[in-house]
Amino acid sequence: MHFSIPETESRSGDSGGSNYVAYNIHVNGVLHCRLRKEYGANVLPAFPPKKLFTLTPAEVEQRREQLEKYMQAVRQDPLLGGSETFNSFLRRAQQETQQVPTEEVSLEVLLSNGQKVLVTILTSEQTEDVLEAVAAKLDLPDELIGYFSLFLVREQEDGAFSFVRKLQEFELPYVSVTSLRSQEYKIVLRKSYWDSAYDDDVMENRVGLNLLYAQTVSDIEHGWILVTKEQHRQLKSLQEKVSKKEFLRLAQTLRHYGYLRFEPCVADFPEKGCPVVVSAGNSELSLQLRLPGQQLREGSFRVTRMRCWRVTSSVPLPSGSTSSPNRGRGEVRLELAFEYLMSKDRLQWVTITSPQAIMMSICLQSMVDELMVKKSGGSIRKMLRRRAGGTLRRSDSQQAVKSPPLLDSPDATRESMVKLSSKLSAVSLRGISSPSPDTNTSDVHGNYAFEGIGDEDL
C-alpha cells in the first residue's frame, strides 16, 4: 500500500498569524482523500509533530515524507489494515473529496478478452460490492467469487492492459476510475491467485472455465505467455475442437502462464540502468533483459529468496538544485527494491525503477500470502461479507462470457530467450549493498515466506 502526500496549498491567518499547509493523500498513486485530522489517537502510531512557524520548501518536503510514512505504517498495521471502521473512513473521505453524490449508476467492467459487462451499482459501493455485482451478471457461483479480483488498468493502443493496481477494500471503484477523467482507464476482471493448481476449482464451473479460457487466449495473443510454434499449433488445434479444458492444461505447462506483465522499465541488475521487462507469477519476479551484443535473456527472482522489499517514491529536483518550491508537483519516481539471497549467506539489493512499482509490490505480497495460506493447509476461498438479508445479490439479467476467436499466427518477430542460471551466475553482479543508514524499518515489507529456506532451495 502506498500513500503519497504532496503539498497542495499554504495559507496564513490575517490576524492570528497562524500558518498551515494542507496535504492531499494519494493511495497507490491516485488522489484518495484529504488528511484533516488524526484518526483514533489512542490506536494509531504517534502522529508526526507539527511546527509552529512557516515551513521552508525543504521542511514542507520533509513533512510530506513523514506523513507518507505515517500513513504507510497505519495501513500496514494488522489491526487497522483489516478494520472496516478505518476502511469505511477512507471510502467516505474518497467520495467527499471527489464530490461524488450517492446515486445509482452504470459501471463498465471489462473481461480479459475485451468483453464489456455493464452493472448497475451505487457510486458509494465498495470493491467487494462491485465484484459481487459482476459475478452475479456473469452467473459466477458465490464460492468462486474469491478467485477473482477487479483491477484498475490503462488500455494501450494494441488492446493490451497496463495494470495500475488491484482495487482494494478501502476504495469505491466507480469513484476511482471516473476521478482519473480519462477514457483509457478501465476496470478489468481477472483471476486473483497465482498457483495454477487452483485452476481445477474454477474449471469445474462453466462460467469459471470460460473466464480462464478467455484470459489465457488474451495473454497468449499479447505475448505474455511464451509459446513456441509447435505449442501454438497444438493450442490452435484444441481451439478448433472447442476443447477448452485441454487447451488450459497445455497452457499451464507454458512459461509465464498466469503471469502479470509490466511495461518496460529499468533495473540496476545485472548492471545499472539495464532495460528490463518484468513479469510476476508462479512465486517469482521474472526480468527479461538484453545485455549489449547478446540475445534476450531471462532471470528469475523467487519470492521465497527475498528477505524483504520496499517501495520508495521521490520527485527529481532540477539539475544543480537542492530544494524547489515546486517540489512535490513534479513527476513522482517509484522504485521497488528487494533484498535477494543470491547464494548461501549472500544477500544483495536489487532495484527496479518503474511507475508500476506499487503494483509489483502488491503482487509480491499476494504471492507471499498465498504461499503462507498453502503452507498452513488453508484455502484461498474468501468468506465474503454477507448482507443484512443473509444472501448475495443475484442479477435479473445475466450475460454469457463470449468465446474468443482463434489464435492468430505466431509473431515471427518474437525471439526466443536464454534462461539465466538459477543462481544468476551467468551475469556479473554488483557488490552487495546495504540499506542506507536512514532507512526506516517500517518502510520495509518483511517476507514471512523467507523463513526456513534450506540449502536445497539454493
Description:
Strands 10, 11, 12, 13, 14, 15, 16, 17, 18 and 19 form a ten-stranded mixed β-sheet that branches. With 458 residues, this protein is α+β, with helices and mostly antiparallel strands. Mean pLDDT is 76; it is low at 1-20, 34-40, 322-329, 383-392, 421-442 and 452-458. Helix 7 (206-221) crosses helix 9 (244-251). The chain has ten helices and 19 strands. Helix content is 25%, strand content 25%.
Question: Summed up, what is this model?
Answer:
The protein is of the alpha+beta class.
Strand fraction: 15-25%
Structure summary, number of beta strands? 19
Radius of gyration: 23 Å
**Shape from CA axes?**
globular
**Main sheet characteristics:** 10 strands, mixed
Distance between the termini: 30 Å
Helix content: 25-40%
Please give the count of helices.
Answer: 10
Question: SSE order, as H and E?
Answer: EEEEHHHEEHEEHEHHHHEEEEEEEEHEE
The overall average pLDDT, rounded, is 76
List low-pLDDT spans.
Answer: 1-20, 34-40, 322-329, 383-392, 421-442, 452-458
